[in-house]
């Protein structure tokens, strides 16, 4: 099937399935068909995950062949193959698979998050050197207010921040801004859905 | 025209022509004496034969005769320009066709070698004998008129009598009647003014063209595909192209190494943070006061919901925690799950993150290993639900029909007697979302809040709490309760009148770490503002100071 034929067919399939799922929300008789379509989507997502894994394998295999940072790519390939085989053999709840996750992946990711806290502290301390404008000053003042209201500092609590200013910022200023943000996200989602249903936007390929 | 050598061409002429030439020569000699026209210098060559000299002289005389016979009246001189009447043209044509001229035409003169050209171009000459033949009425002219009178269509009206745009009578007779529309006053405006060039209407103006311009095939113009860009547009294009190319390239890992004071400062700040966190953990003095219970009413709402659950109630837990937030969220998750397990709730775990089921198992076995339900594995972990939002929508519609990792292995988790009553999502007594980010919790709220009569509660990390507050404060309230971060864990333990040693130590470390962060940011900003920028202030006061020169020189060197 050439490209000229494939594009209208894929668009027609996507639009038809979108309309079926959308109308099934108001027509109870189409619930079974909707569930079947969503089940297909779940299986396709799982297959896409495998394709992503295969792509990652190919990229790093190519790096090993060309010698571009081959050491790191080789470590990644070995770890990937070992974890995949172990998990495939005894399942995700197996003893060895659980050990790999609990003693390698979990500490590494948690440590990266701890390093991120230190990095953000350094960046905030240097913000007046990098950007000496009014917005930097506003950011720095807001940061101080929220940090002081997050809890006691060195065991000393500041009630003005923890009981007055902090709750006001969290319950009024922050909520107001985030409601506007969520309305914008909802409108954007609605527009994106309409564009896909009308065929003007084709994220599945042009 | 060729002559035989040694033969005089004059001898071969007929007698009547010889008499005619003789009379012409006499007339020319007479005119020479009277007018004396300019004769080109054609002196007879001594080497030429006598007969050729005689012919040359005779022709020279004949050339001067039209000038001598030029009419005096200008009307007669311009008579050649007047249109020739048809009868006269036909008559002359018939005469010339009937009389085959046997004599050589003297008007056509071939150039001869050694002849000097006259300054004026030679004019077409009509011999005198031909003019004489043309003057009297030919006896055959009557016959020609009779023949021409037999063609009335051409003779009834001349072209001078027809007005432009009118058809002759003979052509009108050929015209089909009633076919063409009547002309209106717009014809002259609508029709082209050019005359018809071909067809039966050739020469007429104001007619419809035989080939309208609309159907004439015109070669389409060829437009150039090259864009004419100004310099400014070219610069913008180059900048945009560079931006897109740089976006595709990976970032350069080679960074400029920090100077020694900067590296020392970074190291000191990191060490200060670590020491601030380690101090309360090693001291175990419970230095930081616990937060007020009234500060987090949303945590109290969760506590009340769980307290109201009947024993053995099925509770669905959407476990979407990522490994990086395990250390922070572990305490608050353990606090809520322990409360549920104490209420003997039937826990069912499902996750839209691949690592979610493993983290749930870790928390259950690390933090809640003393709970009887965990020891007896009296809970259900459905596993990973692939497919994101679509899969979540399907799971909320039909939990038993969804494909999760446990069902993919061939097991049937719904065969558990405690889950026999679960046919839909509304059959769960409570749905708890355990999430590290706001996006995962938002999916659960937007997809499932309308179908859950008991509502949703969320247990999250501290970073997700501000983004979920709009759902918590909305009307209708789509999120019934929220407990987040280490502060939420401490508050929840206070609500349960319990105090976990680990969470207490974490709270103290959190307090000292928070203080260290505020202090470092304050000192860092003070250093950058006061100490590091002092040279700049001095240079502003004295623009031509040596310090400015040094700074400028170093910048140039860089």
Give a structural overview.
The complex is a heterodimer of chains A (206) and B (558). Chain A is mainly alpha-helical. Chain A has a domain at 128-206. Chain A has helices spanning 3-24, 31-66, 70-90, 95-125, 127-130, 134-150, 159-198. In chain A, helix 6 (134-150) crosses helix 7 (159-198). The longest helix of chain A is centred in the C-terminal third of the chain and has 40 residues, at 159-198. Chain B is of the alpha/beta class. Among the domains of chain B are: 262-289 and 500-558, no CATH class; 293-498, 3-Layer(aba) Sandwich (Rossmann fold), CATH 3.40.50. Chain B has a 6-stranded parallel β-sheet with strand order 3-2-1-4-5-6, sandwiched between helices. In chain B, helix 13 (326-342) runs parallel beside helix 20 and helix 20 (485-495) packs antiparallel against helix 21 (501-531). The radius of gyration of chain B is 61 Å and the shape is elongated. Chain B starts with 14 loop residues before the first helix and ends with a helix. At the A-B interface, helix 2, helix 4, helix 5, helix 6 and helix 7 of A face helix 11, helix 13, helix 14, strand 3 and helix 16 of B.
């Amino acid at each position: 099937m050439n490209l000229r034929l494939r594009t209208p067919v894929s668009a027609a399939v996507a639009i038809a399935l979108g309309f079926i799922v959308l109308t099934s929300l108001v027509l109870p008789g189409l619930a079974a068909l909707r569930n079947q379509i969503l089940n297909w989507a779940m299986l396709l997502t799982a297959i896409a995950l495998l394709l992503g894994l295969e792509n990652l394998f190919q990229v790093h295999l190519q790096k090993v062949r060309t010698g571009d940072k081959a050491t790191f790519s080789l470590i990644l390939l070995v770890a990937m193959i070992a974890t995949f085989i172990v998990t495939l053999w005894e399942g995700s709840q197996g003893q060895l698979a659980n050990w790999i996750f609990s003693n390698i992946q979990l500490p590494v990711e948690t440590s990266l998050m701890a390093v991120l806290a230190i990095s953000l502290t350094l960046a905030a301390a240097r913000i007046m050197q990098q950007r000496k404008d009014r917005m930097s000053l506003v950011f720095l003042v807001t940061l101080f207010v929220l940090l002081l209201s997050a809890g006691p500092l060195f065991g000393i609590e500041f009630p003005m921040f923890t009981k007055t200013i902090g709750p006001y910022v969290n319950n009024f200023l922050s909520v107001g801004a985030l409601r506007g943000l969520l309305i914008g996200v909802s409108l954007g989602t609605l527009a994106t859905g309409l564009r896909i249903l009308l065929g003007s936007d084709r994220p599945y390929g042009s | 025209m060729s002559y035989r050598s040694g033969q005089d061409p004059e001898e071969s002429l007929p007698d009547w022509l010889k008499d005619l030439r003789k009379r012409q020569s006499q007339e020319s000699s007479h005119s020479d004496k009277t007018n004396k026209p300019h004769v080109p210098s054609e002196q007879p060559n001594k080497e030429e034969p006598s007969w050729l000299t005689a012919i040359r002289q005779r022709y020279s005389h004949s050339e001067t005769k039209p000038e001598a016979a030029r009419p005096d009246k200008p009307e007669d001189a311009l008579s050649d320009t007047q249109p020739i009447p048809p009868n006269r043209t036909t008559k002359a044509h018939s005469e010339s066709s009937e009389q085959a001229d046997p004599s050589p035409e003297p008007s056509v003169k071939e150039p001869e070698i050694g002849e000097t050209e006259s300054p004026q171009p030679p004019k077409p000459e009509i011999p005198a004998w031909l003019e004489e033949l043309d003057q009297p009425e030919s006896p055959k002219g009557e016959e020609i008129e009779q023949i021409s009178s037999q063609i009335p269509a051409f003779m009834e009206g001349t072209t001078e009598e027809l007005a432009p745009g009118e058809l002759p009578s003979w052509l009108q007779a050929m015209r089909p009647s009633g076919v063409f529309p009547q002309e209106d006053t717009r014809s002259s405006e609508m029709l082209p003014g050019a005359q018809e060039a071909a067809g039966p209407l050739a020469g007429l103006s104001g007619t419809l063209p035989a080939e309208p311009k609309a159907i004439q095939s015109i070669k389409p113009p060829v437009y150039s595909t090259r864009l004419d860009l100004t310099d400014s547009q070219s610069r913008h294009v180059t900048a945009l192209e560079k931006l897109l190319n740089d976006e595709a390239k990976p970032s350069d890992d080679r960074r400029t190494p920090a100077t020694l004071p900067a590296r020392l400062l970074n190291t000191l700040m990191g060490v200060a943070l670590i020491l601030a966190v380690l101090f309360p953990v090693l001291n175990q003095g419970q230095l930081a006061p616990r937060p007020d219970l009234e500060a987090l009413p949303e945590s109290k709402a969760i506590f009340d919901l769980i307290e109201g659950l009947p024993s053995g109630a099925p509770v669905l837990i959407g476990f979407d925690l990522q490994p990086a937030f395990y250390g922070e969220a572990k305490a608050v998750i353990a606090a809520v799950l322990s409360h549920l397990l104490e209420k003997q709730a039937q826990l069912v775990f499902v996750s839209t993150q691949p690592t979610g089921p493993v983290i749930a198992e870790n928390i259950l076995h690390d933090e809640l290993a003393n709970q009887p339900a965990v020891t007896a594995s009296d809970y259900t972990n459905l596993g990973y639900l692939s497919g994101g939002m679509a899969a979540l929508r399907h799971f909320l519609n039909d939990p038993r029909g969804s494909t999760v990792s446990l069902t993919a292995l061939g097991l049937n988790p719904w065969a558990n007697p405690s889950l026999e009553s679960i046919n839909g999502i509304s059959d769960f007594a409570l749905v708890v979302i355990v999430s590290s980010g706001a996006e995962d919790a938002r999916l659960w709220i937007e997809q499932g809040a309308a179908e859950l009569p008991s509502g949703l509660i969320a247990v999250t990390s501290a970073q997700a709490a501000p983004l979920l507050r709009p759902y918590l404060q909305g009307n209708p309230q789509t999120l019934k309760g929220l407990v987040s971060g280490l502060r939420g864990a401490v508050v929840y333990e206070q609500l349960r009148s319990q105090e976990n040693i680990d969470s207490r130590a974490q709270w103290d470390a959190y307090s000292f770490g928070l203080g260290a962060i505020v202090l470092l940011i304050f000192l860092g900003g003070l250093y950058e503002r006061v100490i590091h920028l002092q040279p700049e202030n001095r240079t502003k006061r004295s623009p031509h100071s040596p310090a400015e020169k040094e700074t400028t020189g170093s910048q140039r060197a860089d």
